[in-house]
Design a protein that fits this description.
By secondary structure, this protein is mostly helical. It is built from twelve helices and two strands. It is globular and about 50 Å long.
Length: 410
Amino acid sequence: MRRPRAEGPLRTLIVISFVDAVGTGAFLTGSVVYASDVLGQSTGAIGVTASAAVVAGILVTVPAGRYADRRSPRQLLLLCGVARVIVFAVLPAADSLGAYFVIVVIAASCEAAARPAQLRLLFLLTPAPQRVVARASLRNSFNIGAAVGALVASVPLAIDTTPALQTLVVVNAVSFLGVSVATLTLPGGRAGRLSTTDPSPQRTRPAGQMRFALFALASGVVVGVGAGTLETGLPLQITRNTAAPVWTISGVFVLNAVLSIALQRRAASRVDTLRRGATANALAAGALAAALSLLPLATHGGPAGATVCIGLITLLATSAEVLAAAGAWAMSYDIARDTSQAQDVALFGLAAQIVAAVMPATAALGVTHGAPVWFVVAATVAAAGAVAATAAFRVPDAPQKTERSTSIDH
């Protein structure tokens, strides 16, 4: 498949993703230090607030998707951008736990609500065969922006003074101001409309409600466990149970970022239907199950052996992450109904968010109790991939849409 070149509004959407990520990456890198050293929040308060922010993000995702489908995705994206400018502008004045809690939860809710708005705009701006690749471009731009933001944050963190740490908030607020200004240039002042010459009724989920849930759960297990393994499981294993040097953790994140950026569009260009998405999910499940099974082996041997094993685990887990993401996009886009695209895609991704939320606790069990836990998680992941792939090949092919002319009110 020819890889589409981002042009016009789609290019603007990719730029918005990058600018958003620069501010978000800068602040998240130093958020714990900022909350503790500048705002004076306790460790417990920071942890409780972070958990509440995750829950708020999960709860707001589907309603935001419904709003983006039925009203205006551009309006929703603009509201989220402006709201985040305001909350980060007032964050330095959060001198109580209550104020800090409210501000962080609002910011997390706006971040979660902005994603369905971006996805709805992607649907409206991109022909159906190119949507998975376009989504990969959005992800890559966000990953690159987050890396740039983390690099920017390293300077005030190194200086480690209150004025220096305040620049983290300034960078974040300015980035969302840029997002808001760029959003005004996008089409879609009112709800987008897809027009077609095809007289057939609008498509409903070809797999049915139960199979929709099955695909969402199977994809969510692979995506969520993969994210949790790279973000929590592997770093914990390195720190607590291996002879590998601590800097290996940084190596894991750098290698993961580089490989993800290099491989995501390539993987996405080959995955564009429900069946191909389920196949990619199954391949991802196999790679991730292998990575999980190798985690106990990293505890044996000296620093060199452990480092090599960790490198192999990172390669397998990153390959799984790339394939699982492409598979999730293809499955959710193929199943999503014309009348509720953003809502369905957001609903499809809820399982991954929930699994990712419980993975830190699961990883802690694996680090504490060793191989039996990792093998159970690996078997669960492998089963999820196999079930989705089997189910996908039993679903009749969805009626093919004739190419639609996409019109968005300006």
